[in-house]
Amino acid sequence: MKCKCGSEWMVVCPHCHQYAPPNEWINIVDCYPKLKQTVLATDGHTIAVTTFNYNEHIDEFHWDFFSSGCGCCDDSMENVTHWMPLPLPPEKHEH
What we know:
Layout: E1 11-12, E2 19-20, E3 26-27, E4 38-42, E5 47-55, E6 60-65, E7 82-85
Antiparallel strand pairs: 1-2, 3-7, 4-5, 4-7, 5-6
């Protein structure tokens, strides 16, 4: 989606419907991603691919981090501060 001025691609927050420039972090104080949306998240030091979920059994929202496969980085962030939608995939060009 383009900005109203047509100059930059913009991302729409799924909750507050505000526009943010691509590759801009969204503070969780302002807005959370929609449930089960895959996003990038950070604690200010580490960046990880994650989904934001709700556990109805314990009445708690939480981040589900994708494993790197080695097991060393699972659930490595306790205090997510910001998130951003995943970038769009690259356009396919015919050769």
